Amino acid sequence: MARGKREKILKAAVKIFARDGFFNAKMEEIARLAGVATGTTYLYFENKDDLLISIFEEEMIPIISNMTREINKAETAVDKLHAFINHHLELVKNKPDMAQLLEVELRQSSKFIHGYSGSKFREYLNLISSVFEEGQQRGIFRSDIQPTIFKQVLFGALDQISTNYTLSRSKKIDLNESAEQIANIFLNGVLR
Predict the structure, then answer these.
(1) What is the DSSP letter of 91?
(2) Helix ranges restricted to H, 74-174
C-alpha cells in the first residue's frame, strides 16, 4: 500500500509541476490530486526539491531502458546515433508533461542545480559516448574527439531543441526535421 501511495504522489507531482511550474506548485495540491493527506507526502519526500529529483531518477529508468533497446536495434554507430537523436526527440513529443518537467522545471530546483549527483542523467549521456567510442574503435569517427565532449555537445543541441519545443505554444518546430538536421550536422559537419 505504501508503494502505491508513493507512486500516486509521483504521478500527481508530474501533472502539477508541468501545469503550475516548480515554484508555483504546492505540496497540498499534489497531495489532493494523489488522493492522500498533505502530511503523507512528507513521509515519502522531504520537500518539493526531493520530490522533483525522485521523479527524475525514477522516470529515467524506463527512458534509459527504452533508449538502450532502440540503440541496440541499430547495426552501425552512425545508425545508433541516429536512433538516439530520434528517440530522444520522440520522447519530448510523446510525453509533453515529462518533457516540461525534465527540460524546464528541473532547472528551477536549487537542490538539482547544487546538489544532484546525476547518476541516472550520467548513465543516459553515457549511452551517447559509448556509441561514439564504438564508432572510433571501428574507424568510423575521428579519434581526436573526446567522447565526453561529444556527448555533452550533442546532448546540448538536443536539449536546446527540446526546450524550444517544450516552451513553444504553437509546437511548430518539426522534431523529425530537427532530428535529421542535428544528425546531419554532427555526422557530416558543416563544411562543403
Answers:
(1) H
(2) 77-94, 96-103, 110-115, 119-137, 147-167
**Could you please report the per-residue DSSP string of 27-84?**
HHHHHHHHTS-HHHHHHH-SSHHHHHHHHHHHHHHHHHHHHHHHHHH-SSHHHHHHHH
Domain covering 1-45: architecture: Orthogonal Bundle (1.10)
Q: Which amino acid is at 112?
A: F
Second CATH level (architecture) for the domain 48-188: Orthogonal Bundle (1.10)
Contact, 154 vs 178, CB < 8 A?
no
Predicted confidence (pLDDT) per residue in 135-189, tens digit: 999 999 999 999 999 999 999 999 899 888 888 877 788 999 999 999 999 998 8
